[in-house]
Amino acid sequence: MDLSALGFPGALPDWSNLNILHRNTLPARAHFYSYPDQESALSFNREQSYFNSLNGTWKFHYDISPLDAPTWETANTSSWADIEVPGMWQLQGYGNPHYTNIDYPFSVNPPNVSYVNPTGSYWRQFEVPEQWGGDQIRLRFEGVDSAFHVWVNGEEVGYSQGSRNSNEFDITDYLTPGQANDLAVRVYQWSDGSYIEDQDQWWLSGIFRDVYLIPFSESSIVDFQVDSELGDSFDEGSFKVNVTIQGKEGDLAISLLSPNGSAIDEWKGSSSDVYEKKLSRDDFQICSSTPHPDFFDVADELGFYVIAESDLECHGFGSIEETQEEAAEWLSNNPDWEEAYVDRARQLVERFKNHASVIIWSLGNECFYGRNHAAMSNWIKERDPSRIIHYEQDRNATSTDMYSQMYSTPDDVREFIKTHTDKPILLCEYAHAMGNGPGGLVEYIDLFRTEQLSQGGLVWEWSNHGLLKKEENVTYYAYGGDFGDEPNDGDFIMDGLVLSDHSPMPSLKEYAKVIQPVSVKLAKNGSAMTVVSHYDFSDLSHLEVSWHVVADGLKTDADPLDLPRIPAGENRTVALPSGLNITQNEAWVTVEFRLKEATVWAPKGHVIAWDQLHIQRPSLKARDLSLVRRQDSGEFQKNGTKLLYKSGNSSFGFDLLQGNVTWKINGVDIFQRGPELSFYRALTQNDAASSGDGPIWEQEKIPMIYPQVRDVTWRVDNDGAIVHYKVWVGVKTRAWGVEADMIYRIPTSRPQLQLEARGEFVGKNDSHVIPRIGLMAVLPEAFDGVSWFGRGPGENYKDSKQGSRMGQYSSTVPDLFTYYDYPQENGNREDLRWLKIGNKDVTLDARRTKNEPFSFTARRYMPFGLDDAQHPHDLKPLNMTVLHLDYDNNGLGSATVRVRPFEKYRCYTRPFNFTFDFNIV
């Protein structure tokens, strides 16, 4: 190829020229559609507007370089492949998806981009509706990654970059009236703009959002801005509308309508109607890349608060330089990049300035801090002084109206506030929702509700971003590396509150609970309850309240509960419901708040909030729930290293060498192995992170922990049989372990096994924290039915159980399992009083003595089977039921970004002593 004939390398192409951000694009404007009349406008259906979609099937040609791309004069598009628009070409068979969190997937030499730059050529025809004759015709792209040129009927119209920004071209003069028009678009995978689009993302390319035509008549509104102002008393306000008109002058009428389409009356004090929206919750949504415009419409309707963020991130320079200041010199503090930065702010503000949901503008994400952020801030403040400005890496809040941090602990924030009282602080990211987690959400919500300067936080993030991949007989959600993409950041993209298919994970239920707008707590005297409203604007009159009692073997019907008026942000103490007659040792009074009427987002009766008040009556005598039967006293038989004991229809086997225990009833297996001490659980993604406990556990060889029998004694007396193991539970290559006693008691009074386990950690263990302390037993696969009294119905952990109610639940072993996109520890249930597991013929009842709480998992996998799997299809179920009963286990935390489980949720290597009773019922 003769590159000189193409102007190479002397002429900079637009996509590698920092001086060319756009060519022939129209000024950024508010996003809106024009309708023929008020009725169609109130439908909010763009199909009834002046709008002509160009989405659909286009012709497509793929090349590895723009130099290879066909010219439109010679292109034979009839031989090209079909491709769907909107869509990413990597997901339609061209190139491979590539995932990185921080590092750039290309050689870093800004603003230069390699000529080896995959290029997609798109072509289709379109006709302009006849009734649009004489109008200005605009061609609008809502998103093209990362840069593109446009041709109409063979003539170049223009160029633009900024993947998640809208771009609009006036194509009126390029059209052929009354005929089909050719539209051609050439898209470049990389551009100089790619250096500031280094988000935690899949690198995907193409026309990935809507493409459409819109007409503007000879005299039309092309832009407008609505500003609202409140009086000093906040009980009256006004709207100001600034309208940009093109073409002829004419009359302009503006109407302010209520949701039902009627005009809003003039304010006349207390006799006037009040137009308000009652919010169910005060949520925030932030994006490190600008979302589709439709998102803001939804946010307006549902009442979300939105931090709208510029499509701007250059995180990768942090891997190149040692300090933030040095990293900023590449782009953020480089005057050559000022216009590129300000352009991102301009595009954002102009497009979304009229959305009531947008309360804060953000200057971008993880771009360090420099002069170009100051320039963005100055432009925004001049253009829209009504909103405040955010940017996390402006650590001194020089150009912003607030401090911002990521992944600080509640204690970190409280310490910060002590010395920074001039501006509020926001956690723009916290509680990294990766896999099974996060834990400790309730501590953050307590921070937000008790510290006035702490303005809340945003859980990172909403959704996993796995891409559906099909391989032979397997379909699964892929992450970094699954497409051969190097370098990559693996499963770090699986960090949302919902799975890749957008089905909710347990963490979403937990999050919904801790942010609920009403809470109830037991008053100090125990005879009353305090109802607290966390609403900012609404009282509780839109909710109906009921209560019922849950206890072991009891659930009463719900009864209504009358509350006094509770204004927003206030609380009232009221007596416990009349008719409360609790005869059990403990019970839970459940109070629920439901919608009286349906809303746009939830039906009538939807539960907005709930709490359970734990009522204890320690003076009452505990019921003996075991099944009492007489059976004959047995005797021991020793055969080599095997010890057998038979009593009635029960037979027990004790391995004197390895400590294994078995139990049969009438020849049917109950315990095929165990119960034995267990200290390891499969890792969560948070555990496995470099800042998690997993690497330390691996260093201390905790996954390799195993028991060694030191001594065994046994005897039979009038109460039954006792087998006493003295065990050393140690790890290979390390000089630490657990000195433990395992005391098995088999009473003559009933088919029961009682196990007392006590132990102490000795030696040098740098971890000081261990995954779990408890028992593990192997039961037959047929033991498939499970019921329990404890928290449920879904999984929960000690630092993530607020969203799980105490109650009696039933399930099957397979249904207890949570299938995360990346396999890991899952399926735990906390605060059990008892557990029953078995089949139609026999059921094993497990509970701790004195009714002390415990947790359990039951699944078809050993912990190492979960650790070894990288995708759900890697899991190979065993022909057994693996039961874990835990005295303690480590919390979840969110250590993928620094925050391990808080102190009170840690499982420390300290002495333990617990007893479980196992009965056949």
From TrEMBL:
Protein's UniProt keywords contain Cell cycle: no
Protein keywords: Glycosidase, Hydrolase
GO terms under biological process: lactose catabolic process
GO cellular component terms given for this protein: beta-galactosidase complex
Gene Ontology terms, MF aspect: beta-galactosidase activity; carbohydrate binding
PANTHER family noted in UniProt: BETA-GALACTOSIDASE (PTHR46323)
Entry EC no(s): 3.2.1.23
Catalytic reactions of this protein: Hydrolysis of terminal non-reducing beta-D-galactose residues in beta-D-galactosides
Name of the molecule in the record: beta-galactosidase
Similarity comment text for this entry: Belongs to the glycosyl hydrolase 2 family.
